[in-house]
Specification:
204 residues, alpha/beta, Rossmann fold, 5-stranded parallel sheet, two-stranded antiparallel ribbon, 6 helices
Length: 204
């Protein structure tokens, strides 16, 4: 049985625009793979603590702290990620990049000698690649002709997830949510079209 890991990052929870978009992505995946189960991992609202001293020690020494503090949390999150056939990340854009909640999850799963190794050629990921879908909501516009702000979120996710072996990333976004209901309706409709086109192509 296949698994979808849904990493939900907004402090607004299920009321978030990114969460709404992620549910459409998950529904599209379930339509294609009806026997798939969904693992929900909420990281928004401080659900996952930031890294602690034990974790930091483990990265620079041989001391065994695997059962202590955030190292135990890290192992749980990595195993969750390893077990998934698809990953859906729903996240807002905060200050042009990822929110701190998503950064905390990333810091737990991007771990030296566990999800990547350092070699003479650089960092090499150890995870099996799988489709990653990222549902983004943003108060401003960061792509297209009407973009008014830079985007440090999507290139960062490509780089950091690529570090651990995850390269198959697809991004969908609802942008301009701060511009009012009409703008939100417009961007929702456009994103819905992109979703249908993407998953129709996968099913062709």
């Amino acid at each position: 049985m296949k698994k979808i890991l849904h990493v939900s990052c907004s402090p607004r929870g299920q009321a978030a625009e990114s969460y709404r978009l992620s549910q459409k992505i998950i529904a599209s995946l379930l339509a294609k793979h009806p026997d798939t189960t969904v693992i929900n991992r909420t990281v928004g609202g401080g659900a996952i603590p930031h890294l602690d001293e034990d974790y930091a020690i483990s990265q620079s020494s041989s001391e065994d702290v695997s059962r202590k503090g955030s190292m135990a949390q890290s192992e749980e999150l990595i195993r969750e990620l390893e077990s998934a056939d698809f990953v859906v990340i729903s996240t807002p854009m905060h200050n042009l990049t990822v929110p701190s909640a998503l950064k905390a999850w990333i810091d737990h799963v991007v771990r030296a000698r566990r999800t990547f190794n350092v070699t003479a050629a650089g960092k090499v990921g150890t995870l099996r690649d799988r489709p990653i879908f990222v549902a983004i909501s943003s108060g401003g516009r960061f792509s297209g002709e009407r973009a008014r702000q830079p985007d440090f979120l999507t290139p960062y996710l490509k780089a950091i997830l690529g570090t651990i072996g995850l390269h198959d990333l697809t991004f969908f976004s609802v942008q301009g949510t701060g511009a009012g209901p009409a703008a939100v309706a417009e961007t929702r409709a456009r994103t819905d079209q992109e979703l249908r086109a993407h998953f129709s192509m996968l099913c062709a």
